Amino acid sequence: MTTSLADVAASATTLRAFLHGLPGVDRVGADQRAAMLGTRSIKTTAKAQAIDLAISMVDLTTLEGADTHGKVRAMCTKAMRPGGGAPRVAAVCVYPDLVAVAAETVKGSGVKVASVATAFPSGRSSLEVKVSDTALAVAAGADEIDMVIDRGAFLEGHYLKVFEEIVAVKAACGQAHLKVILETGELATYDNVRRASWLAMIAGADFIKTSTGKVAPAATLPVTLIMLEAVRDFRDATGRQVGVKPAGGIRTTKDAIKNLVLVNETAGADWLTPEWFRLGASSLLNDLLMQREKLATGRYAGPDYFTLD
Ligand SMILES: O=C[C@H](O)COP(=O)(O)O
């Protein structure tokens, strides 16, 4: 890379020139490669390991207006001890006002608390509100902040505005990790997914995340593939590793394993840990646990065995 990234973000013009200078995404190629990797089969022993790895990468999520303290506590208990000897999940993900309840429940377990600050899911609020939303969530005990980008500004080409918001939210995070949600289902093109990925990483994202789970399409394989290519290329260019989190619509063990194959074949094995790859999902964990049980015993557990998400 001939220009340093500090120079890239020096002005709206340089940032725009850099993002529009990224190679275009071959749409057909990306769709075909994702489809091809999605059909790879894996051996039974590898499948058992893949299921446990996937469980350890789950950001177990509840993001409903009707969420209660009781629901969040129950979800946290399941996150810490999914049952049957399965590993704990990576994190629980909740709205900011429920961070304190989650943090108290998972304390000392190693399960992180993530929160969707910044006027999630639309992001339609002032920067002051977004920064304060973030700071309050961190003060309440959030280890990770999942912010949404301003898709309106991005689609109008106001990249510096999006960049500055991410920088401001990152500053408000302090020690907490920042996941930047691109909401790829609203970005219209794969080229935009690549541009938004780079924009977020240049601005300081620790993770890039596909979706809020409130917009369709959410975490499609081609979009995750493009984001994995972006983090791989960003590390080659800068030496800094950024994580990836597909989220929204990932419900089955099959979906989870397809994602793991994609990670391995695209970004590489360095990303195959919960530190660098997460699966944001509200109902995936139950299917992973059921398939795990099936592999271990040869039969599915009864319907009452697992708590419903
Ligand atoms: O961040 C995670 C998503 O909101 C979860 O979406 P989901 O309910 O489709 O699994």
Heterogens: glyceraldehyde-3-phosphate
| CATH architecture descriptor | Alpha-Beta Barrel
- Within the CATH hierarchy, at the fold level, what is the topology? TIM Barrel
Strand content: 5-15%
Class by SSE composition: alpha/beta
Number of helices: 13
CATH hierarchy class name? Alpha Beta
Poorly predicted parts: none
Report the radius of gyration as a whole number of Å: 19 Å
Number of strands: 8
Instruction: Report mean pLDDT, rounded to a whole number.
Output: 94
Query: Percent helix among the residues?
Result: 40-55%
In angstroms, what separates the terminal alpha carbons? 46 Å
- N-to-C order of helices and strands: HHHHEHEHEHEHHEHEHEHEH
CATH evolutionary superfamily: Aldolase class I
Which strand order does the major sheet show? 7-6-5-4-3-2-1-8
Largest sheet: 8 strands, parallel
- Work out the count of structural domains: 1
Could you describe the 3D structure shown?
48% of the residues are buried. The model has no long low-confidence stretch (mean pLDDT 94). The protein has 309 residues and is of the alpha/beta class. It has an eight-stranded parallel sheet. The chain is built from 13 helices and eight strands. The chain has helices at 5-8, 12-21, 27-38, 44-56, 69-80, 99-106, 127-139, 151-155, 159-173, 190-202, 221-238, 253-266, 284-297, and strands at 58-61, 91-94, 112-115, 144-148, 177-181, 207-209, 243-245, 279-281. Strand 6, helix 11 (221-238) and strand 7 (243-245) form a beta-alpha-beta unit. Glyceraldehyde-3-phosphate is lined by residues 61, 63, 93, 212-213, 247-250, 280-283.
